[in-house]
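Work package 3, deliverable 3.1, input record:
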Amino acid sequence: MRTTLRDVARLAGVSPKTVSNVVNGYLHVRAETRVRVEEAIVTLNYRPNLSARNLRRGRTGVIALAVPELDVPYFAELARHLVAAADAHGWTVLVDQTDGVRERERQVIGGIRDQLIDGLVLSPLALTAADLAERTDATPMVLLGERIHHGPADHVLIDNVAAAREATAHLLELGRTRVAAIGAQRSAAGVTARMRLRGYRAALAAGGVGYDERLVASTPHFHRADGAAAMAELLDSGARPDAVFCFSDLLALGALRTLAERGLRVPDDVAVIGFDDIEDGRFSVPTLSTISPDKRRIAGCAVDLLHRQLLTGAAGHADADGGPQEVYADYRLIARESTGASVPPVPSLPAGFSASVSVSSAPSVSSVSPVPPTAP
Amino acid sequence: MRTTLRDVARLAGVSPKTVSNVVNGYLHVRAETRVRVEEAIVTLNYRPNLSARNLRRGRTGVIALAVPELDVPYFAELARHLVAAADAHGWTVLVDQTDGVRERERQVIGGIRDQLIDGLVLSPLALTAADLAERTDATPMVLLGERIHHGPADHVLIDNVAAAREATAHLLELGRTRVAAIGAQRSAAGVTARMRLRGYRAALAAGGVGYDERLVASTPHFHRADGAAAMAELLDSGARPDAVFCFSDLLALGALRTLAERGLRVPDDVAVIGFDDIEDGRFSVPTLSTISPDKRRIAGCAVDLLHRQLLTGAAGHADADGGPQEVYADYRLIARESTGASVPPVPSLPAGFSASVSVSSAPSVSSVSPVPPTAP
DNA sequence: TTGAAAGCGCTAACAC
DNA sequence: GTGTTAGCGCTTTCAA
């Protein structure tokens, strides 16, 4: 049998309450008593039962992170930062994988694991505003990404329209005129894709370049295989792109692959830019230009928002501030070889240090701005 | 206040026990009663308190996965499979990130979260056999990888020596004579690296090729940056390799990057093979030959072993079978462009389907063999 | 500064 | 089939 607090109390000759005080760092315990208790704890190798503590305290010290796929590098990197941020608050992270399936996402917000978790960070893909409105579970929740923009929940996101506009503008500045886009999505789930498409079109308009539907490729997902297939389609269609803005780095890596197979040079024949700044793009051949969202910040904000919700007792949003929070995280454009930036020496730096050249950074986007910096 | 089982019982006009029976799917409940209870549950939006249930049952339905880094693709892919396998057993996965730091790994096996988890799957990097021997926590545990080969715990691993031998032999079969190795490690943590080096040397010996120390590059980690730096070193050293066996795919991707920068052709000038079969290698330029461990199987076995330990009540191993289990998972060699395999058409298949050509598979390695297939 | 008693919400025994 | 009783291990009143 496992040793309990009572066992310790018995051995130390004190009451359970005193042991509890010692364990929880309560200050007003006589030094002598404290030592006796601590010795007993060591002797018996006592460790508190967290289930019991949770039951009593009504909190568990665990938060859940729900993402579509753990092995998509963007989510993996995000998860890493979230685990670190949660750690700082004394939280452990429990991971849910939704596969982007609406029903699973509904279950997650419905409280499948409520009372086992203090909070939830969800990166939704298929969830609708209605699903969210139906939610009755009171567990604090933070949504990641643009999916349900003005829904009744705290959000952490980046300005996808502005970022996409910048990426596209970067290609136009190279003098390219037939700029393609890969990653458009018509499904209800494609909110992020639609924002990026809007930014793409805005940049074209600003650059005085006409919008050509044939240069826009839709993809079911944002994976490498989708990017490779879409690039092949674009090339076969006779649309003759001389640059491509891919809505994710994975799409871009797939596109690079197809271009290499077709014997096209990057960036000479076709310039390529992605979105996400995953580690792969720093070592691909050629290295990949991209939009780099501040993932550390996104994770940090999500955890902070959760924390605030717990303090104010609000569910899904911080009422004290008059409604759900929308926090905008920074991003920046990173130009690498795929858009003609010079070859940096191979970095022997630890991962996380970018050896690339930052050509431009977001126009003073406040990370806590309550309104999107993009004009409506 | 949250609704409790008592509230439901009151509304349905039954005892708490009956509600409990319904919730837990106990069979011998009158249909009429069951319906009444279920209605009450819906009306009150009742959801059981897991902390209370856990306290009572002594189990939590949660297992922990501890890996060095969540954003290393191999671990991310493994995590994905583990979440899926755990799901099938009704378990939720809680993720710990150790950063490969020994102290954190010790904490993990020491039971930081015991009584919050039913079991632990650990992929150790720095843990020693002594650390393991000191362990007093009784939580079921399964170790992944080769770190503490004959330690007192269940293991799931692959035959690293044989796999490395095959990878190296594959390079020799191409007619290469100056086959380099990247990823050697002298530190205590480098057990996996040492097994792979052994396989490399064995293949050289079998192929009648002399061992040349100058062709072996050590790296602190198995990351892209390490591979890139090591490849640069090898090229600068005048060792003139015409092939490289990298101990991980990330190392190999880094090496490919350096080779591209130096204007060397792969595989013409230098053939490259990696280890892990991460998704990146299926789309890199060129695509990467590799050793592919059966990750789904590894995850599945780990969960099964945990399950068995829970049933037998053993801690860290299945006593019923006379000691800790060592389960060997399959692997196979996948030849792609980096060792001269023909270019497959770009797959438009969903991720997870390899479009590559399997040139050879492991020599009938049983996945449940209790002894390593490699000769001692 | 410490102790005694109560109870968090649930389920395992055992009664009926 | 269903109810009663007890208690999982902890923290939280409230007294002493």
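Residues 279 and 351 of chain A are 8 Å apart (CA to CA).
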